[in-house]
Every structure is written in structure tokens, then in C-alpha cells.
Design a protein that fits this description.
23 strands
Length: 463
């Protein structure tokens, strides 16, 4: 009798809903302890997971590296030091830390780097500061990402050195209706950046501007619209070369401390490393891995997730490649009981439209992580329904507020959720509800999924 009720439930609330009848779906709800299936619909059907993909990356990173692991960035020098003069260069050797400067834009750590240079006895540099980004290959933008995404703040390139969340704020001056917005400056300032600007001022009430561009390029193509007569208006973009910008800022801090530098800051990495003997003088450590995966999951940071994805790929060789990262992710989860045979893995954050994973795979992953020795860190890294991160608007003021810890994924016509539901009697369910290619907006799908989750929850606690 219960099985019949659930089939009816799915038919009427998901597959039978007028807005979802043509959607591509994969749904599974199970008890994490017993493995009993609470509900399902085409659970092995693979669909684009959007940002739910981050669960594969952050779970693997936590299991492989542990929550206390910190990614190092090393300050080194080449050449010799004679009477306070370094006859050589200062190097910043990056290891793909996404938290240098973090999303709050703090650069206080540069003062520690300056003190380390001074402690090494360096008072003058007969050379320059070089950002070494050779840990990764030249594919800073994942080949599976769309051109319309590349260059925007949510799809920055991933480099051996990432800085200030790889994000620039382009300040525009909004004018009359129909006029082209004026570019005032960027924060922070980026040297030599040029704009092919087509952003119009219109009656729109929101930021409809987009930025397009490639890594290392100093040209950005601006399109779309912003509200008219709005004064200054900020549009976020990527940083074309974050390693170079960090080297410039480090040079400025050194000179402000009285250390003369002969050469301008530069970088290496897109065409291979500079192979010179170096000595290490300081190691900067990232935020803890537990904090990094929380940033990736709670705020759905593509930068953090993709940087961890690329970092893990270096276990297959340096320079790290996108292919190596994809192989690593698939191999890791295969060895830990997650069936990804039908899945397509193209990135670690879910921006690639070719990504395809089933509800079964996500539930298997969630059940595995629920048994992990790092379970508490994992659980804390997930947004909470009605309370935090990307789930703040989900299930507010319902019996499931605060009871769902899950990752969301949203693109046009797609709304996905995967995570845990905690029941009043102490039981825990793992679930994945993946709804793709619906002929409606993603925000229209969410209340349908909310109604489904509430009905499954309430029917079970009543039986």
C-alpha cells in the first residue's frame, strides 16, 4: 500500500506537474542506516547536476586531504644575497590556493611576506617579483565551460595562483536611457585592461551586464544592460591574471617597506616553469580544508570547488590538467563504492553543461560521507534549509526548516537538491531530487520540489 502511495505522490507532484511533465528527472530518497528506499523515480537516469556537482569534489577533497590540511604558497628566491642585495628574483610559487585574499579582499598577509624577505637579509632586489603558476597547465578556463560564462565573476579562470577570489569590480557610470554606460575604473586596479564596451542603460531594475574574456588577455567585452540614471554601478568580472596582480601588489608592499626593486613584476606558468635553483624563505598556508569546502558548498563558490578539483588532479602529475582531475574524481569515488559508470564528469563545480550524474550516485556518495570519520565537518559544510547559504529560502517556516542539509544546483530550467533530511525520531535520509530542462524558470521549480519533500516527510513520520 505504501509503495502505491509514493508512486502516486511522485506522479502527481513531480512527473505529473504541468510545468514538469517534459522535464528530465532523477529522484531517490533512502534511509542512510538501513538503505531502505523511501521513494524513487528513474534514480539511475543521469542529468546535469549544476552546482550539486560540488559534492563530488568537496567530498573527495575532504577524504583525501583531511579537514586540517592547508594548501601552501611558498615565497622563494633565486640567486645570491650579498650585503643586503639579492642578485636574483623573488618567486611566489603557487599551489592553487583559492583563499589568498579571499572573497573579502583582505591583503594583510602581504605584510608577513615582506617581513619574511627582510628576515632573509634582503634590503634590495636586483631583479623582480615573479608569480610562478606552473603547477597547472594553460587551461585556466575549463574547456567544457560555455563562452558566455568565461570572463564573468562566477566563472573565473583557475590558476596556480588565485588571488582576491579572482574577481574585479568594474565601476560604471549609469546615464540616460539608451546611453552606453561609462567605465570609470576597476577595483582593484588592473594594469593595461581594455574594454570593448556595449553595456546600455535601460529601464531594467537589476544587473543584466555580462563580461566576456579569456585568461591572460587584457581585453574584456562588456554586454547587456544596467539601470539608467543610477549613478555609479558595479559589475563583477574575472581577474585575467591573478598571479601577475599578486606579484604587482607584493612588489608595491616591498617598496613601501623601503626595499628597492630593479625590475617590474611578472609571471610564469602559462608556457611552463622557470627552472632555476631557489631557496625557500616563507610558507603561507591557506584556510583549513574544512573552511574551503564550506565556502564551496554553503556559498556555491565555483572558484573554490574548481581550485580544489584542479589541486586534486595534480596527484596524477604536474602540471595538473583538467583531464587528470576528471580521472582522479571518477577513480576515487569508484574505489569508494559510488557508481559513476554512466556519469559524465567534465569539471568539479558544475558549470560544464556536459556534466551528467544520477540521483543514485549522489545518494551513494552522501551515504558514504555519513559514515566518514570527517562526517561532522562534511555535515557542517552544507547549507541548512531556511537558514543559511543557498538554502536560506528553501522550506522556510515549514516543518523542514533546519532539518535539511543539502547542496543546491541552479541553471535555466533546472533546479537540483541533494543532501540529508533529519527526522524527529533520529533517523536520517539521504536524498537527491534532480529536475532538468523544464520549460519554466528555475525559481518556479523550487516550490514544487519543496511540496514534494514536505509530503514525503509528513507521510513517513505519520506511518
Amino acid at each position: 500500500m505504501r509503495i502505491g502511495l509514493y508512486i502516486l505522490l511522485l506522479t502527481t507532484l513531480l512527473t505529473g506537474h504541468p510545468q514538469l511533465r517534459q522535464a528530465n528527472m532523477s529522484v531517490l530518497v533512502t534511509d542512510v542506516e538501513t538503505g531502505a528506499v523511501i521513494d524513487s523515480f528513474r534514480p539511475d537516469n543521469v542529468v546535469p547536476p549544476a552546482s550539486v556537482m560540488k559534492l563530488l569534489t568537496t567530498g573527495a577533497a575532504l577524504e583525501i586531504l583531511g579537514p586540517s590540511f592547508r594548501i601552501p604558497t611558498n615565497i622563494e628566491y633565486s640567486g645570491t644575497i650579498d650585503k643586503g642585495v639579492l642578485h636574483g628574483d623573488i618567486y611566489i610559487r603557487g599551489n592553487c590556493d583559492p583563499s589568498l585574499g579571499n572573497r573579502k579582499g583582505t591583503t594583510a598577509f602581504l605584510s608577513k611576506w615582506v617581513k619574511a624577505v627582510q628576515a632573509a637579509g634582503i634590503k634590495e632586489i636586483d631583479g623582480g617579483v615573479i608569480a610562478d603558476m606552473s603547477m597547472l597547465d594553460g587551461d585556466a578556463v575549463n574547456p567544457g565551460w560555455l563562452w558566455e560564462d568565461a570572463g564573468n565573476y562566477y566563472a573565473p579562470g583557475i590558476f596556480g595562483i588565485n588571488y582576491l577570489s579572482n574577481t574585479l569590480n568594474i565601476l560604471l557610470r549609469s546615464g540616460a536611457i539608451g546611453s552606453v554606460a561609462e567605465v570609470i575604473r576597476t577595483e582593484p586596479e588592473y594594469p593595461g585592461l581594455k574594454y570593448n564596451n556595449h553595456i546600455r542603460c535601460t529601464q531594467t531594475a537589476f544587473d543584466g551586464a555580462y563580461v566576456h574574456g579569456l585568461p591572460y588577455s587584457t581585453e574584456r567585452y562588456l554586454t547587456g544592460s544596467i539601470p539608467f540614471n543610477h549613478g555609479q554601478f558595479g559589475v563583477q568580472s574575472d581577474i585575467p591574471n591573478p598571479g601577475l596582480l599578486l606579484a604587482i601588489h607584493f612588489s608595491q608592499h616591498l617598496e613601501q617597506a623601503g626595499i628597492k626593486i630593479s625590475h617590474e613584476a611578472t609571471y610564469t606558468g602559462d608556457k611552463g616553469p622557470v627552472r632555476v635553483e631557489r631557496k625557500q624563505i616563507y610558507t603561507h598556508l591557506s584556510d583549513s580544508l574544512g573552511a574551503l569546502i564550506a565556502e564551496a558548498n554553503i556559498y556555491s563558490s565555483n572558484l573554490y570547488a574548481e581550485a580544489l578539483f584542479r589541486y586534486l588532479g595534480t596527484r596524477y602529475g604536474i602540471p595538473g590538467t583538467v583531464v587528470g582531475s576528471c580521472d582522479m574524481l571518477r577513480d576515487f569515488w569508484r574505489r569508494h563504492g559510488v557508481d559513476l559508470r554512466g556519469a559524465l564528469i567534465k569539471d568539479g563545480c558544475g558549470l560544464a553543461p556536459q556534466d551528467a550524474v544520477s540521483a543514485t550516485s549522489f545518494v551513494q556518495l552522501l551515504c558514504y560521507m555519513n559514515r566518514s570519520r570527517y562526517q561532522s565537518v562534511w555535515y557542517a559544510s552544507l547549507p541548512v534549509s531556511g537558514e543559511s547559504g543557498t538554502l536560506k529560502s528553501l522550506l522556510q517556516k515549514t516543518p523542514l526548516q533546519g532539518r535539511v542539509h543539502a547542496k543546491s544546483g541552479t541553471i535555466s530550467g533546472t533546479k537540483n537538491f541533494a543532501g540529508y533530511i533529519d527526522l524527529p525520531d533520529g533517523r536520517r535520509w539521504a536524498f537527491a531530487v534532480l529536475v532538468n530542462s523544464a520549460p519554466c524558470k528555475a525559481k518556479q521549480i523550487q516550490p514544487i520540489i519543496e511540496k514534494y519533500l514536505l509530503d514525503v516527510y509528513q507521510r513517513n513520520i505519520q506511518h
